Amino acid sequence: MKLITLKLIPLLFFFIITFTSGQTFNTTQQNLPEGAITRLGHGTIISNVVLSPDDSTIAVPSSVGIWLYDTRTYQLRTLLTGHSGKVTTVEFSSTGDMLASGGEDTTVKMWHTDSGKQITTLDGHIGAITRILFSPKEQILATGSKDDTIRIWNLKTKETIAILRGHTQGVESMAFSSDGNLLASGALGESYVWDIRTGKRVYTLPQGIEGKTSIALSPDGNALVTINNPIKYQYNNAIRIWDFKNPEGSTLFESKSGSSDITGMAISSDGETLSAIIGGKIHLWELSTRIKLFTDSPGNHEIKKIHFSPDANLLLSSDKYNRIYMWDISQGWLDTTDITTIQSKSNIDDLLFYHDGSCFLSRNQEGIQFWCVEKAERTATIPLFEAKGNLDYSPDGKNIVNWVGNYKQIYLLNITNENKVMKKFDLDIPSNYINSVKFSPDGSSLLVWGSGNYLTLWNPNTGKIKVKLQEYKGEISTFTFSPDSQTLTVGSGSGEIVLYDIESGVILKTITTGTEKVSLVTYSIHGKLIASWSKSKKIQLWNSNTGELFPTLNLDMNANIQPVLKFLPDERTLAYSPDINTIQFWDIESRQSLHRISIDKPFSSTFSPDGKVMAHVNFNSKGFISLWDISKGIKIGTLNPESSIWFPLLFTPDGRKLIHRIEENNILVWDIDSMELINSFSGHDGRVNDIALSPDGNTVASTGDENTILLWDISK
């Protein structure tokens, strides 16, 4: 190969994140847990996506299974489930008719690509699967694991024909020789070559003892390339080239760790060119001569990913600013136009050419983008949704809002059309943290409260900002909507209550409480009164129209884990917690103290919508829920899930059922009349992070550690 000059076509990704309309996600009713009616979201994408040899199918390994998409229609074909945990790696066979997957559950599973049916499960590893590799020889599979072994499988007999032992830090990478008889493997400080026919180690490639070793093989099988990235700075980074049958290799590059870390490697399909990312720059070598061809970084931007086209004429790279560059390494500048599009701020995790070279794909947190090489334009996007954190239903039950505070991401999911398609909206939140997202009672507004006193109201139908509320200079500590959705009431750290007009964002009035930080504010049912509680332990009532103090007795309330301050539906009774062991009921009109409920070791309380029943969690080694008749102040029953109870406690609108989650990642549904457990839902991989109840009381939405939303039918 002659010396070449690289030229590039920038595919620029600008970061104007506002509202993304029209993007839809394929939800699925396939392979759902018992009792679930829909799964929203793809979960966490664990490792690189892979394309079938005929480029017709893309496999996406995730925390819930393997998503298979048709690359011609960009539609979901199926979701493969069977692993009891995250899918860590996937690989198509050379013919594309089989797909192998490995998981954290230590198993390897084989699937028919067309039908999606599971062929078999290969058991034997005792650690998570890290790498799967089909041999050039048909029906031979190699699997690497965190259990420090490599297993060689005969796929016809489904039996292990060799176990390669010697690694001590798990197995990170593998490569077969061209004849399929030898296998190279790498891990932390270890590189070995094995004869899989005998199961014996042929030789050890010398590497630094404190480094992570990656291995790649040229397609012609003539060059075995290893990268060593030390953990400690006293060892060197190195790129070395070896021959499978000769342990005497040559060093292409070596430098002190910390100054020029090697973060990526690719070999061209013709075996002539090696590219590596060193210190954020692209380096290029001719493998046959070991001659250095090129070093560059466009705009001095740190390169993150590289990938060769199948014909070895193009090189893709992406940088830390999420821009993609397409390099012509044979003929110079490509005669095409720039690509400009709107993208997310997330990193580009994958770059992958089709096997025929006509297209390539990129993946980031938002989805998989498909690009036409000839026209240099994006042809399609498969959005991917990772559901995290908190949930809330819109008052009409048509939408679910999902957000994660420290990720500054908000998603509004439409769940009502017949195909269960959900739309994704990206709301640009400039603050450092999202404290809360809440629908107004009439559903016409969506409030986003972020750190730094960021308050913005959005139209959930259009995804556009309705109004950015006039900035309040003091610390915002709490807020609530008026029942008529006309006013937003905010409590401040300076002891003031600020009332905003929702349509204009103008401050209507400011109430000075004369107390310390206002920690709670709540409206009476018809919105005539506002109750506030401050850190001075005082409860005060205010006329919501005039802002005047309502005459009360001297009501004190000590802080609780979750203090109670609530108007009951009769409009004249206020419930509050004067101390951590008591719930007090007080008549507003007569300003007289009513009965009180004394509870040992309280944790939190919630009230049925009709105000007749109170559910209270008593916190002990396991936890139980006590139920109280509010009018009489007497205990009427106890619900004992025999497990630690997690919040929230949710009554159905008719007050007949109570829903909550427990430590063992279950969602429990209780019948209040019989005090019996009538349903227990389990399907998330790990902890249930939050639950929300639909306004009609028929469906519970839940998020889990695998980062999907499951909808459960509780009407039966």
| Quantity of strands, as a count | 66
Radius of gyration: 30 Å
Question: Could you name the ranges where pLDDT drops below 50 across 5 or more consecutive residues?
Answer: 1-5, 9-22, 332-344
- Bin the helical content: under 10%
How would you describe the shape? elongated
Strand content: over 45%
Mean pLDDT: 83
Alpha-beta content class: mainly beta
End-to-end CA span: 71 Å
**Spatial order of the strands forming the largest sheet:** 28-29-30-1-31
Q: Quick gist of this model?
A:
This protein is mostly beta strands and 716 residues long.
Textual characterization of the structure:
The protein is elongated and about 95 Å long. Residues 1-5, 9-22 and 332-344 have low confidence and may be disordered. 0% of the residues lie in helices and 52% in strands. By secondary structure, it is mainly beta.
Please describe the topology of this protein.
Blueprint: E1 7-14, E2 24-25, E3 36-40, E4 50-51, E5 57-61, E6 66-70, E7 76-80, E8 87-92, E9 98-103, E10 108-112, E11 118-122, E12 129-134, E13 140-145, E14 149-154, E15 159-165, E16 173-176, E17 182-187, E18 190-195, E19 200-204, E20 211-217, E21 224-230, E22 236-243, E23 246-256, E24 262-267, E25 273-278, E26 281-286, E27 291-296, E28 303-308, E29 314-319, E30 324-328, E31 339-342, E32 350-353, E33 359-364, E34 367-372, E35 377-383, E36 390-393, E37 399-404, E38 409-414, E39 422-423, E40 434-439, E41 446-450, E42 454-458, E43 465-468, E44 476-481, E45 487-492, E46 496-501, E47 507-512, E48 518-523, E49 529-534, E50 539-543, E51 549-550, E52 565-567, E53 573-579, E54 582-587, E55 592-598, E56 602-607, E57 613-618, E58 624-629, E59 634-639, E60 645-651, E61 657-662, E62 667-671, E63 676-681, E64 688-693, E65 699-704, E66 709-713
Parallel strand pairs: 1-31
Antiparallel strand pairs: 1-30, 2-39, 3-66, 4-5, 5-6, 6-7, 8-9, 9-10, 10-11, 12-13, 13-14, 14-15, 16-17, 17-18, 18-19, 20-21, 21-22, 22-23, 24-25, 25-26, 26-27, 28-29, 29-30, 32-33, 33-34, 34-35, 36-37, 37-38, 40-41, 41-42, 42-43, 44-45, 45-46, 46-47, 48-49, 49-50, 50-51, 52-53, 53-54, 54-55, ...
